[in-house]
Please model this.
Amino acid sequence: MIKKIFYKTVYKCRDCGSTSYQSVIERADNGALLPTGQYRCTGCRCIFATVRAWWSPGARPDFQSSRSFN
Ligand SMILES: [Zn+2]
Model:
């Protein structure tokens, strides 16, 4: 059984406008279900490496900010 975890946010997907996403969970070699650290939009199903990349249209790897989702 894969337990789907949805996160509601105040942000919106830059592509489809969905306001929720879920963690990407994949089965490891030993059978355990582990989060890959990536996120999937529940609207357009696109996978993003970070929450910021999901909502920020101008996200860049070197973008500097004091805010953190961790
Ligand atoms: Zn989307």
Summary: The first helix runs from residue 51 to 55. The chain has a mean pLDDT of 82.
